[in-house]
Amino acid sequence: MIKTIGLFAHVDAGKTTFAEQLLYLTRAIAEPGRVDHRSAFLDSHEIEQERGITVFADQATFAYKDHIYHLIDTPGHVDFSPEMERTIQVMDAAIIIVSAVEGVEGHTETVWQLLKKQHVPVFFFINKTDRTGANLDEVVAQIRSLFTTDLFLLPATQVAEEWSTEQIEFVAERDSLLLEAYLERGIDEFRWRQALSMMVMERSVFPLGSGSALHHHGIEPFFAMLDGLVMTSYDPTEPFAAQVYKIRYDAAGTRMTFLKVRSGSLQVRGTISYKHNDNEYTEKVTQIRSINGKQLKQVERAAAGELCAVAGLTMAACGQGGGALSSQTAVELIPALKSKVILEPSVHPKDALKVFRMLDDEDPSLSVSWEERTQDIHLHVMGVIQLEVLERIVLERFQLKIRFGEPQILYKETIGDAVAGCGHFEPLKHYAEVHLRIEPGPRDSGIVFLNACHPDVLPVNYQHLVEQHIHEREHHGLLTGSPLTDLHITLLKGRAHNKHTHGGDFREATFRAIRQGLEQAENILLEPIYDYKIRVALDHMGRVLSDIQQAHGSFQPPEIEGDKVTVTGRVPVATFMNYSVELASFTQGKGRLSLMLGGYEPCHQSEQVIEAIGYQKQADPEYTSSSIFCAKGQGYEVPWEEAAGHMHV
């Protein structure tokens, strides 16, 4: 049986140390490495060793009893959480590691929600029980309060085959047939373990173990329990299907696509069919590699259930399905900041852009963009630590010395009312006209294209062009030049010319129609919002509520449990992005803060932001509100206010 297990934790909970002990237990490595000694098998990158944190989701392969395991050690720092999130889709089960000293921390709550959404079975391991200040009972109580009360407890010294009275009662309470059988005949070991396994895989029960990863205490019985409970059933006889969970470029510049084979098998020189951006691709696999830490081994075949990296796929993206799978997995963790790349004078911008396009392939959350007028590269980021790491990566991998500008809030724009926009593009020997209805859409819905144009008015191929141009890029709003979102754009009508319509004409007409519509609309600036959860001592409630109000946030009625209080609500990223430091200060590190981007809302300080950005809509080289018409063999410009009266349709 082949199983993929993921390790998740907040920074410094001991996740990588746990991984080392697990690899040592299964004889995958001769000696367990240590993070503080820079000798961990999975934290093999120099950046990770220097900082003592996991940055990349690296994997190892080992055997235990009759099973093959793929172990993925995921980043625990919030700045690298998109890397962590991309791996969740290929997990058969997850181990969440919680420190017995620090307890459940903010990032752990984010991990729990992501695993819950993907329906991944979860095992808890409470680590560092040997440390001063450890409180196992309190941490178990936190997990019950924050996550689930359905915990199947495993004492650190228990032999896997033994069943305690508490465990027997726990399982029996959830299966009446087992309870009857137990009262009549006692425990049938196989049947009980089978029932518990089903409960675990259905996420109705969550096993919990404890111990010390550093001193190898509790690891063996915990993993023996996991091995007996995690069941997979990958079928090599079914048609081939796979899921992409990572893209990497190797030292030679070869694009490697990391796959989880879900069914069937894949051979070198075999083909994979997949869809990307509505285009169909069928490409030949030129190489298959098995990955074990830094060790890469070329193989001829990958079977159902296995993880592998393949060469030959040019367009497959993270979350992409191949073969029998065609869905794109949605992501939850989206950056709320953007930054500009600052280049050395000797570096040509287009050379740097090639590098960042490769990094964008590897990490789609970067959303790398190029501004032609200023020759600038911009990207989206989670935080400043990510920028520091990116600087090192670019220098070490590509020998480019760069810096980044101060991260800025990633604003967006929308409109508050429905308008009709029209655009005409008719310089000499060119022709296209487009009419659109532009309406506000639901919050966080993006841009949705609708079509109400009859083929007799505009041929279908030109209608498809309009749709393509609407989706081909982010469009600038009028207030700050930020991306437009939350719009329903309907094609009403248009016109082409049998002789003079050429490629690009409908792009010009479509962009001008959007812009002309925005000129008539109520434009609204949107800012990113955090969904937050704060847990502090009851004595600190007043301070926390006051801070939230000052940050222009909102909160639900506080939930009080004993001497603790939990506050949830929404708050602008701009006013709360550094609050974790302040919270840690006045709670002496005992306060817990969980933040997740909760979409966009109207900006609480629009005027100040608009003034600070200073966007000049008339000077935007990529957009104009005016239309171009032709008379007497010469094109002439008509401003947006007058354009509707000149339209041909």
Automatic annotation (TrEMBL):
The keyword Protein biosynthesis applies. It comes from the Bacteria. Residues 1-237 form the Tr-type G domain. Keywords: Antibiotic resistance, GTP-binding, Nucleotide-binding, Protein biosynthesis. GO terms for molecular function: GTP binding; GTPase activity. One of its GO terms (biological process) is ribosome disassembly. Abolishes the inhibitory effect of tetracyclin on protein synthesis by a non-covalent modification of the ribosomes. This is Small GTP-binding protein domain-containing protein. The lineage of its organism: Bacteria, Bacillati, Bacillota, Bacilli, Bacillales.
